[in-house]
Structure formats: structure tokens, C-alpha cells
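*Target chain*
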Amino acid sequence: MKMTAAVVNGEKRDFELEEIELDAPKDNEVLIKLVATGVCHTDVAGQDGLTTPMPVVLGHEGAGIVEQVGAAVSSVKPGDKVILSFSYCGKCRNCLEGHPGMCEKFNDLNFAGPNFDGTHRMHKDRHDLSLFFGQSSFATYTVVDEHNIVKVPDDADVDLAYLGPLGCGLQTGSGSVLNYLKPEPGATIAIFGMGPVGLAAVLGAKVAGAKRIIVFDRKESKLAFAKEFGATDCYNSLQVNPEEVIKDIEPGGVDFSLDTTGVPAVAETAVHILRPAGEAVLVGIGGDLKLYMMTNLVAESKKVAGLVEGDAIPQKFIPEMIKYYQEGRFAFDKLIKVYDFKDLNQAMDDFKAGKVLKPVVKM
């Protein structure tokens, strides 16, 4: 079938809305009519040529309606509302143990370009287009493997156009807290970077019952969101030294820290401020990190983990986030600004400039 997709034809080039060809779904696949897709920093990395061969159709926070299912698909049917998340094989040790974000084939399935079987479904002028996160949802339609699909609960009274970001950015932030760190009520956590991922982490920490949620960012507007979402202590990192702040308000250090910025110096700080036996989680895209093994880690039994997609099982965790939203505990919709699909380049520019926290393009 013919449909419209936003194609990136070279590194750092704008998105071009083009008519392309989409193959029919195979036995394990589903044809989705896309309603809306969130914009994420990983899309920026893809546009810059850091992740996936070009030409590529980016987009990995899609939401839409099932139009056709393959013969082997049993989890959804035509007409179902769905959210699209990341790809995982479902067969490796990590997937089978409930950690699909740690799938042994994660990079191949999400960034290499082909579909599960090594072929492509999207084509332009008889040339293959790379797939992104198994969905390439900056498009009017897509074909995805069944593993990518999360059925929206029948009782979810939420506009489908707002749900796509639950598939990646918001899942990463809140899942890192709720699925991986699992702070007990009364715990202390410091979170660096109040973009959508960091703010989702604040929401997760609030749901978990953390006693003290300490956040740092350079923009007062983002800190205001964090305060509204449940942060107990908000600091502008241009005005204070985070390590000095923690020494003052939590002299023994915090139980947990989370860096969403990817800035090496910030990640180092996230380790320095831990109490003995505390743990830091790093989820940002960054560069070299310098830690002294004895003084920073071994001597105080501190731990550092890199984490992808909030250690979530999307089919389990995304409905939980929707439930929290319905209970008034996860107001992620306040972060979202909706753009028309034709204005995708403007949405990306606004996102990069920090003018909007979470753009969503509506098809």
C-alpha cells in the first residue's frame, strides 16, 4: 500500500514527507493506522546519524488503531487501540527472565534497520528504508511485530493522541524508578535533568512513596513542573553545587540517584552524592565517564547501572502508567504539546531549543 512517511535522507537533514510503499504484514506482524507519535531525544540522535542507517523513517512513540493482523497474532484484533514500544526478541535469557529492555538483540532490532526477519517493509523508489525501534512511527501507517504492541485497556478514558510517549520516554523515567530501583517508602532519591524522562522519574518516585525527591535542572520552568509533580527539593544547578546541597540536606548521602542528562560531570556527581551502598542509574546518551574505582565505588559499596527503557515489560508497565494517570497520580499529559504531522520539523526545532517538553505529532 502507498502511505506518507517522514523520511530522513541524510545526517542532520530535515524530515521530508514523502509517499512510500508499505508491505503487508507477515504472520507475526500487525498493520497499524497511526494516530499520533511522540518526539524523543533518541529521534534527534537518529536524525543526526548516530543510530541507524539512512535513509530512515524515525519515530518510536507511536499510538494508533489496528487495521490488519497476521495469521499468528493473537494479542490484538482489528479496531483495537494500541501503543507502540520498543522491539525485543522474546526468546533470549533476559527476555525470558522479564527484562526485555536488556534483550540480547536489542540494538539489532531497534537500530540496525531491518525488520525481525532481516527484510524491510518500507520502500521508496524500490529502495529499502530503515526501520527504527521496530515501528518507524513518523508515518500514517506502519507494520510492526507483535512484540512492539501494547493494547490500550478498554476502560482507559484517555485521548489516544497523548499515549504514544508512554512507549519510550515516560516509560524510561518512571520505569527506572518503579521497576529497577524500587525505592521503599521513606527512601531518598536525587534526579538530574527535568526533561520528560526526569519528570517521569519524579512521578514514579512519588508513586513509590519516596520521602525526599531532590531534583536539579538549569531551567526554572522545568523545576516548577518537578515541584508540581511531587519533588520535595528543587535546585537550579546554575546557582548551586549539587554535591554541597546534598551534604547540607542529606549529610549521609541519598539512597538513589538518576542521571537523565548524559553529561559525564553530572553522572559523576550522581555517584558522589550516594550514601554507602547507594545506587546510581544512568539513562542519558553521553560520553566518557571517569570514576575512581576505590574511592568512588569499592570503598563504600556503591553501585552504578546503565539502563534502557526503564527495565519495563511494556505490555505490563504501560497499562500500569495509564492506571496511575486515571487515579490522578501520573499527570504526564501536562508535558505534551500537539503539532500537525506536516509541522514535524517545527516540532523537532522547538524540542531541540527547549521551547516544549514533549512534542507529539498528530497524523
The chain has a mean pLDDT of 96. The radius of gyration is 20 Å. Residues 105 and 152 are 26 Å apart (CA to CA). The chain has eleven helices and 18 strands.
